Amino acid sequence: MKFSYNWIREHVPALDTPARQLERLITMRTAECEGIEETGALLADAVIARVTSVEPIAGAHNVKATVETGRYGQKVVICGAPNCRAGMLSAYVPIGKKVINGIESDGMLASGAELGVSRDTAGIIEVTGETGAPLVSCAPDSIIEIDNKSITHRPDLWGHYGMAREVAAILRLPLRDPMRESLLPGAPAPIKVAIEDLDLCPRYSALVFENVTVRPSPLWLQYRLTAIGLNPINNIVDMTNFIMSELAQPMHAFDRDLLHGDTIFVRRAREGEYFLALNEQDYTLGPSNLAIADAKGAVALAGVIGGMDSAIVDSTTRIVLESACFNAASVRCTSSALKLRTDASMRFEKSQDPANTVRGLARALELLQELSPGIRLVGGLADQRRQIPPPPPILLPLDWLVRKLGKSVSALEVRDILERLAFGVAEHAPGVFSVTVPSWRATKDISVKDDLVEEVGRMIGYDFIAPQPPAVLTTVPPANEERAFHRWVRAVFADRGFTEVYNYSFVAEADARALGMDPADHVTVANPIAPNQSLLRMSLLPELRANVIENAKHFDAFRIFEIGREIHKQPAGLPREILHLAAAIYSKEGDGAAGLFEMKRAAECLMPGAELRPCAALPYEHPTRAAGINWNGAVVGRLFELHPSLSEGRTAMLDVDLTLVQLAAPKEKRYTPIRRYPSSAFDLSVVAGERELVGDLRGKLASLAGPLLQSIEYQRQYAGPPLAEGTKSVSFRLTLGSPERTLSSEEAGEIRARLIDGMRARGYDLRL
Asked: How far is CA 339 from CA 301, 335, 345, in A?
């Protein structure tokens, strides 16, 4: 959400606090600011200038323009804008001299985009006014950006006037109300309003105007909207956006001549009702959508967007100006279901103040006199509403407030803070205030005394309240073995150079299909937050693959892992969630073997003694590089290389069920004393078929070695001359020892000979 410092200052005329300092105050007292963007810097020196002559430049598309600037005298400017012509008024900016096309150019004639007053880059800006005068109501501005999430509970802060009210309260300055409700006439309304359900639309107000002229907005209005990120369209539409940004009251203008009948209906849409929106998209509506309709059909989606069939066009001469309040949940459901989020829907979702509808119309009535000269109001205000009783006063015991706040505050200070925030304060009893909540804070913000404590605390400043832990007894929570196990797993992989990633629990259909997974097997999200997040993931691998593809654009090698839940559809009842670990080692170069061995090492650190057995590859696995992981009698996961068609480079991946891993882990750890006697080690190289599993060879050697074998480690393998084709030599290091004595050389030699004879008896040759 963007706020203009100049706009706030219009409502707080005495404001002289610099924008940077104000940003800090707003952050500490009201809402988190994300930064300040300076805009319109060239406007500080820009003046209205008249182009007195234009001469073409041979061999160039630019022209030589002589301009009279008034303040800066006559200047020669080289200009490339197609609309530069003698007699026009534009904006001159003294940016210095520069030689262009061999001619010295002194300053520039600026476009709207260059000045920051609009996004128009088609040509230099055309203005009206006196030569040498500054551009009317256009000055450099500071745009304060506020995190939307910090004001979701404050519908009043979605407009400049609400933020100005906060600034005035913080700095103890007077606030100027831009609205004059006395402008609204008391004559009969020329149009009727019929609300089907007052719970869905607590208030609907409208005015009718004639003799309307639709044209571009004046420069000051275009600048205001552009500075806060809105697109200027025309004077009528821009006026509604201006009021939405000022009073937080979304409005909409209908072309009266395109409406059928003399009644506006606020009703549930009919099943299958057709609606063409202003974004030129058509929608099929249903009873869950609230529609604004005329006698023919829907002309707007309540609180979301208007319709093309009644849109304002250049030929519009009569308008119906709508200012309404809609149920927040209804707007949110319609916006989410149609995947249509607008500036209006974002405000209505926060529960707007029904009293704001007529304030918006009164402000519009004043603005339209300037924006559309000659415009005439027809009749009076059409206003249908549900009578909403004011919220009951909140009793606020001052001793309770002090205890809750943790800081001594006087009754006088509490009253001053609340009254600055427009609360009504009366003494209900000694030491107890009766606080009346203003309507713009009563929708879903302030309802209990705890809310008032927050108001007092934030205005004092939480940085002035000494942090102090509560004086209460604490107890150590019971151990959570599962959480401790997950932390240990994270530590194991982080220690081996892996970076943890976090992904959404949603997956796109395309990503699921890429790995051979059927979208029909997934749980479908009824109301996805984005089109590419329509399924609940039944594997961590699709998103981990997406992480690999994205990171491969920036790194030649990396390691990542994620711990998350797979969500599996069940024939009946809720889905089943299974906690998994997925990891990936990517390398742009090489044949991928190193990555697989590194991943195997990581798996063995997690599951000491785990055994990998080749298995049939799944669609997303390399056809010859896939293995199941067996640990303590359970199959707990898979280790494989990602299929080459699914990513560039080589990606070794690990996917294990952490629930099975935790269950298979030994429950007891036995102490083994430090070895007191020296051990004896020797190497053996076994010649076997090239497809023989190293693990099988290791097992056969271990079974032949007997109880004195302390360890057996794979060293290396070799294939090539002088070995026969189709064979390989696999080398192991065997370590022998006894916990009770030192082995003699004869004992070690006997075991070595037994190993050699035993392997030869099983058909293997050994390289000695």
From this structure: 13, 6, 11
* CA–CA distance, 635 with 628 (Å, rounded to integer): 7
- Note the pLDDT tens digit of each residue in 394-442: 999 999 999 999 899 999 999 999 999 999 999 999 999 999 999 999 9
Query: Sheet harboring 432-436: ordered strands across?
Result: 394-397, 432-436, 424-429
The span from the CA of 165 to the CA of 150, in Å, is 17
Amino acid at 710: Q
**Tokens 């409406």 found at:** 259
Residues in CB range of 358: below 8 A, 6 or more apart: 181, 184, 205, 323, 381, 383
pLDDT, average across residues 67-76: 95
Looking at residue 737, its amino acid is G
b/e per residue, 445-460, with b = 16+ CB within 10 A?
A: bbeebeebbebbbbbb
Amino acid identity at 120: D
Quote the tokens at residue 668: 């007891």
Instruction: Give the pair of three-digit tokens for residue 231.
Output: 């697109």
Consecutive H or E run containing 290: strand 290-293
Q: Each residue of 247-259: pLDDT tens digit?
A: 999 999 999 999 9
Please give the angle made by the CA atoms of 112, 214 and 298, to the nearest 5 degrees. Answer: 115
Smallest CA-to-CA distance from 363 within 254, 194, 248, 230 is with 248
pTM: 0.75
The secondary structure element, H or E, covering residue 380 is strand 376-385
SS3 category, 135: coil
- In angstroms, rounded to a whole number, what is the distance separating the alpha carbons of residues 158 and 166? 12
